Amino acid sequence: MYIGRNLSLPSMAVLRSGARSIDLTTGTLLAGATLTRSTTATRFNASGVLETVAIDGARFDYDPLTLALRGLLIEPARTNLFLQSQNLATGWGFVGASAPSATRLIENSANSNHFARQFITAAIGDTVTIAATAWEIPGSAKRYLNFTSVALANQLAVFDLAAGTVDVANCTATMTRIGTIGGTPVWRCTATFTATAAGSLGNVLQLVTSPSASSPVRLYQGDGVSGLNITDMQYEIGGAASSIIPTTTVAVTRAADVAVLPGTALGLGDGVFTLRYAFDNGTTQDVATTISGGSWTVPTTLNRRWIRAIALG
Q: Which of 91, 145, 231, 244 satisfies CB 3.0 to 4.6 Å to 103 for a cystine?
């Protein structure tokens, strides 16, 4: 478990212009800063291992593949509505498939669809993101991972876990490599869509034999042994996937990160300023910010979750 600690000078740099910049790649919060969060949360540590961070612990998150520090992870509150997110063998329903272990989805030998499913109540207009970590089973016949939701009545996305490619239909999707198991690449797969149907609707992790999202081959003769490894399943209301929220029997909410930073770290008093946030992917975002009482709160609505530096814009 990791909890950010406070240090002073290592977290502050002086630019050539004389303006100061807050460096968030040191792995520590600067003096005078606070971070609160009323629940635990997860991050990838410097060894690329997913771990739980204590309540009020700052999350300095690392890329699980390259082990590079991505920056301070700041997120809004999110709820994972999938139950048993790390155990397919419990709490999931199946059609033409089973889960002989916590992470393994195996097709049966019927000529049918082959999937695991959970029902979640959706409202029309909800922006939904479904995510899962998945990798191929060595020796299995070629199978693709298909995300499907009755809330959209469409196939959403089909992921090729060997090639690292994704095909989409009426959604946006991402596929990020996060590790390797026994030489097999491991991927974090996400799909985001707007619900067009309401009610308690099925959300499916499906085995298909075609990489096409618009016309996946869902109905096929199974062999009784092939499938995929899937874990860390997540269903959340929001326009992009957030950090992994483990569940066991009920939906779990991760509270928002509330980071309050001192204006003096940038040489600023109270007033309205444009602050520039620098992110892990090299992009920046300028945000009109009010410093009041000597401090301001970092927004949880920024373009990226990983902040590497903050300076006067």
A: 231
